[in-house]
Amino acid sequence: MLPQGKTWARSSILDYQPYEFTEQDINIFEPTTLRELLKSARSDRGTTTTRYSGSITVKALCAVSPSCRSEYGKKVNADISWQLWTNEKGQVVRLFAKWVLAKTAKNPISSNTEADTSYSGWGSRVSVSVPPANQVAKVD
């Protein structure tokens, strides 16, 4: 969505949260969200990872997740099946979620949405440099 040759965007009016830049609608950085997912999850322990799996409704997710409430409020009635992998330190390394929106009177079209997200580099130092001005597009 950026102009040709631009790889960065600058805006004084846009206010995004980090989770809004991904298709993954389950925010693993909210402790209450992870707690809700894991409280009724099934688990399979491997040699280096543990896979948890389960399902949750958007209504139940939004009840505990501020980012879900911000994104969906009470307007979406969908079921989410998910799988979450953690490494030997208990850090999330992958999250796969599938949203199934059923056809209803209010929603005449059913849909399926999938997001498969990998997480790595936990605890690594990160450095972000100011990009060159000729690579920045002003978006207002």
Oligomer: single chain
Q: What about the largest sheet?
A: 5 strands, antiparallel
Q: How many beta-strand segments?
A: 7
| Shape, principal axes of CA atoms | globular
Unreliable segments (pLDDT under 50, ≥5 consecutive)?
A: none
Overall pLDDT metric? 88
Q: How many H/I helices?
A: 3
Estimate percent helicity. 10-25%
User: Structural class of the secondary structure composition?
Assistant: alpha+beta
Radius of gyration from the CA trace?
A: 18 Å
The largest beta-sheet arranges its strands as 2-3-4-5-6
How much of the polypeptide forms β-strand, as a percent range?
25-35%
Q: First CA to last CA: what distance?
A: 13 Å
Q: Could you give the order of the helices and strands? A: EHEEHHEEEE
Helices and strands in order:
Elements: E1 8-10, H1 31-38, E2 42-45, E3 49-57, H2 58-64, H3 66-72, E4 78-87, E5 92-101, E6 111-118, E7 136-138
Helix pairs in contact: 2-3
